[in-house]
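Case study 2.
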Amino acid sequence: MSSHLKTLLGKLSVKAPQGGELLGFSQAAKTYSDYRHRGVSPEIAPGDHMYHGGGQTWYFSVGESGLAACLHAVSQSWCGGINRILDIPCGHGRVARHLRAAYPDAEMFFCEIDKSGADFCANTFRGTALYSRPEMTEVALPKNLDLIWVGSLFTHVDEDRTSRWLAYLASHLSPNGVLVSTFHGLYSAIEQGIRPMIDPAVWGTITDGVKLRGYGYAPYSNFELGDYGISLTTPQKILEMACAIPGTRIISYVERGWADNHDVLGVTRNDRTLAM
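Prediction:
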């Protein structure tokens, strides 16, 4: 390294937002190392269709990938520590068990429209069960959350709900807290051809929406828990939505960032428009 470059780097300083501390890659690596040492709970709920429906070979690796996505986003933030976590929708703990192992002392909240899933997670992974509703903004979520993990929710709802719910979740973050959420990005069009997620007869409706607006959606023909289906979106559309959330900052977007499948967005509650 040249003496000129050394002098220049020596003059550079990074000022953290008020109340913030850059956790960085070293802290994320330590969290991951400690997590691997502890191990995760192997307990599976009888009603866990993700596991019992044929997912025995990939269930735990997909859960670990969810944790890795969270650690990546957190390492880019100014969040001083992860003390309060929300997993929504938590299912029966595919990712929750990994979050608990990584953050053994954190206060955790498990939210799910399927009450058995929320109850199982709360009882098994030490936390509070929250029962969701078809309209998320009607759910009284806890405030001052340092980490919110949203795995495979926006992949099943339309554009209006995605935009509304992203903003609602971000409003529950602590200062410099991190929201990590997943989406069906462009690769999911390839997956539909290999392992169809929805009736191919309505797939054209979804792709037409992507071509017109960057976001396509079609509901399942028969789903008991409400209006859910399959969405497909471009990275540009998701970044546009995230940019519209006041008081936040985009810290990451990784295509196929969860289990080499879903795209992953990271947003922090740190106003992009304010000078540091």
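Confidence is low (pLDDT under 50) at residues 1-14.
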